[in-house]
Amino acid sequence: MKLLSGKTALVAGASTGIGRATAKLFASQGANVVVVARREPELLSLVDEITALGGRAGVYVGDVVEENAAREMVEYAVSSFGGLNVAVNNAGMLGSSLPAEEVSLNEWLQVLNTNLTSAFLGAKYQVPAMRKSGGGSIVNVSSFVGYTVALPGMSAYSASKAGMVGLSKALAVECAADGIRVNALLPGGTDTPMGREASSTPEAIEFTKSIHAMKRLAQPEEVANSALYLASELSSFSTGTALLVEGGVSISKT
Ligand SMILES: NC(=O)c1ccc[n+]([C@@H]2O[C@H](COP(=O)([O-])OP(=O)(O)OC[C@H]3O[C@@H](n4cnc5c(N)ncnc54)[C@H](OP(=O)(O)O)[C@@H]3O)[C@@H](O)[C@H]2O)c1
Predict the structure, then answer these.
(1) d(CA 64, CA 70)
(2) Please, which pLDDT band fits residue 233 given cuts at 50, 70 and 90?
(3) Cα 90 to Cα 37: distance, rounded to the nearest angstrom
(4) CA-wise closest residue to 226 among 159, 148, 144
(5) In the prediction, which pLDDT does 253 show?
(6) Residue 24: helix, strand or coil by DSSP?
(7) 117 close to ligand 1 (CB < 6 Angstrom)
């Protein structure tokens, strides 16, 4: 039995990395998947990969900071597949690695809008659609940064990712009675384009590995497995949680 048979899932930030791996996994578990990002060619190649494996997917090209896009991607899911059951709000950006005193207000707002406000806008339209579909699961992708650890040069990113945990808890209490669960997923260092941007030298990669108890980075597919857990009925009694998938950063002092 596939874990997402007959479900429709929206994955924002699906063109690369964790979102792309999540979309492929969800499709392989029977979901109709709507993949969202700004880069159309990457999304179209993802749909080709999903279709070749016998899955069903549709593309919405847009910017998650736009409220119209948040509304339209849900409308697209409902009109294409008849409802919405799962949403993974995963789009994100790092921002510069400047100390807070040198970060411009524009950059601060761009990072907060991309990483946090996008999930708020997403929920505004995902929740009513899920209510109509009889319930659902929202997975908000946060990070070990801003929760397990703080790292210099990441003030806006950390604030946005800590905010994802608070937003998820608030939505969880608002939506529980409607059968909608909302959880935050907190990956550790993961081998993706963003992970490679954050750790761009061999020394930086070694440092990032070293702060994980497991002394390695995650593959995006490992994080996707945890997104599947939160999205599916496997986590049917979990809401408002912050699920660490961070290779033991929080318990490591070596
Ligand atoms: N890699 C790590 O070590 C790590 C660790 C903890 C948490 N995370 C979080 O995991 C999530 C996925 O990151 P990743 O590592 O997989 O990085 P990634 O490969 O760079 O993916 C980021 C995704 O977000 C999309 N995106 C960014 N801004 C967007 C916007 N304004 N509108 C629509 N889509 C947008 C990108 O697509 P387009 O550019 O095509 O729009 C891309 O699909 C992020 O929220 C990140 O903060 C990553």
Answers:
(1) 6
(2) very high
(3) 10
(4) 144
(5) 85
(6) helix
(7) no
CA of 206 to the centre of ligand 1 (A): 22
- Of the chain, the percentage scoring pLDDT greater than 90 comes to 99
Whether residue 204 has its Cβ less than 6 Å from ligand 1? no
Q: Is the CB of 93 under 6 A from ligand 1?
A: yes
Tell me, what's the pLDDT at 1?
Answer: 83
157 is catalytic: yes
- Return the structure tokens found at 66: 């736009």
The tokens describing 129, both together, are: 């659609």
For residue 92, give Cα distances in angstroms to 15, 37, 81, 178: 12, 10, 26, 28
**pLDDT at position 254 over 90:** no
Q: 161-206: per-residue pLDDT in tens?
A: 999 999 999 999 999 999 999 999 999 999 999 999 999 999 999 9
Residue 74 CA to residue 60 CA, distance in Å, equals: 9
* Fold of the domain built from segment(s) 8-251: Rossmann fold (3.40.50)
What are the domain boundaries of the chain?
8-251
Whole-number Å distance, alpha carbon 93 to ligand 1 midpoint, is 6
